[in-house]
Amino acid sequence: MHACAVSWINVLFAHGTISALEELPQFLTEVRRGKPPSAELLAEMHARYERIGHSPLLEHTRQQARDLEQRSGRETRVAMRLWHPKLAEVVSDLTSLDKICLIPMAPFSVEVYRAAAEQQLAQLPAARRPQLRAVAPWGAHPRLIDAYVAGIVETINESVPVEQRAQVPVILTAHSLPSAVIRGGDQYQQQFLATAALVAARLPQPVTTCFQSQGADGGEWLGPGLSEGLKDCATRGAGPVVVAPIGFFAEHVETLYDLDVEARAQAQALGLRLLRVPTVHGDPGLLDALCDAAEQAIHGSTASD
Q1: What domains sit in the chain, N to C, each tagged with a CATH number?
Q2: 299 assigned to active site
Q3: What are the phi and psi torsion angles at 211 (to 5°)?
Q4: pLDDT tens for residues 265-292?
Q5: Of these residues, 67, 258, 288, 292, which one is catalytic?
Q6: Does 292 qualify as catalytic in the annotation?
Q7: Distance CA 136, CA 213 (A)
Q8: pLDDT tens across 125-165, in order?
């Protein structure tokens, strides 16, 4: 581990989530790039948040920041891309002499998060705007792959008899994106599939990939969707099926509802038993990946300023 410079501060930069239901209309408007949600969408999302009780994304990310700070010896803060606390708020005490290492908690979308960070920092006066350096995509870090594999193996071993384990299908999921984004050159799909291939190579089970949590506005989105993956498993006669959300690093509405409620109900209707792998939000392998990504960005030759 390199000795850290006092002027560098890590910032974990996550998607964002509400703290109270009354924030939901404004949050959905921001997620939808200024387009207010329809009454139907608002009611649906309100019901989802009520069903899960609370999205722990912010709490989990703050715990990850505390753990990373302890491990790296470098101050680590938390900001959100699409909700509060925004990056400009989080660094409001800094100046142009300070440096922040941005660690997007979406390793397949580093450039998107970096652009959002630059946009948020642009709101600050030049004298109060810290220097920004973003980490490189980090979703294929070996210790992160270790964590994914360990979680999948543990889930299977806890719930499936020994003689059936090698036949249990595993579905690796990440958030879907509009296909137009990928056609525009975004590397998200390519990076996710590369990470998924590393995980699949370590497992004896049949492994497929799916994209979940497609947006509500229609249009063409990355597929196959998770519902298609579950139907395929049912067609092949599978009993238990493992779903591992390797595109997410904390529990939130898209795991607690989209997987644990919606996908579980669909699996049951298809005669499947869905075994859901928890996110790696507290795994030491995740911390190792975050730590190494930051160190390489700050001290390595491939960091992007």
Answers
A1: 8-138+284-299 (3.40.50.1400), 142-276 (3.40.50.1400)
A2: no
A3: -115, 130
A4: 999 999 999 999 999 999 999 999 999 9
A5: 292
A6: yes
A7: 25
A8: 999 999 999 999 999 999 999 999 999 999 999 999 999 99
